[in-house]
Amino acid sequence: MKNITDSFVSLGHWPSASSFGFNTDILATNPINLSVVLGVLIYFGKGVLTDLLDNRKQRILSTIRNSEELRRGAVEQLERARSRLRKVEMEADEYRRNGYSEIEREKENLINATCDSLERLENYKNETLHFEQQRAISQVRQRVFQQALQGALGTLNSCLNSELHFRTISANIGILRSMEEITD
Fold this sequence. Notes:
Blueprint: H1 2-9, H2 26-159, H3 162-183
Coiled coil: 64-98
InterPro entries: ATP_synth_b/b'su_bac/chlpt
Family: Belongs to the ATPase B chain family.
């Protein structure tokens, strides 16, 4: 133990060549040990390391090839999708144009049908007004005629005596009979 602690205490001390032991001087032994280990690893591990590196290289190249194939497939799918998108957009534009023209046609048809309906309603209204006017005129004529007839009868009754009254009625009956014969 004394030997170990002395070596840590005195870093400049080298053990003599005649004795065999462990050199615990880290700064002196590490480069030598590392060069020996590296030499052994390079000499014996060269084949294994070459095989590992070749396998890794092949895996990387295979992964790159697979990635390239996947990229090509993705590019082809993207182009097909873009082509389908263009086709669908063209169809949508066509449907939109046809839809707008169809909407305009339907709008025109609806406007025409509405105008026709309004015209028919206006005609019906005018006919109804004309009919109501004719009916009102007819009713007014009847009332005027009745009132005139009642007034005339009242005037005749007050002015005529019974003999004049009888002659007037007979004359009127004669006129009505002659009119009846003409119509037959």
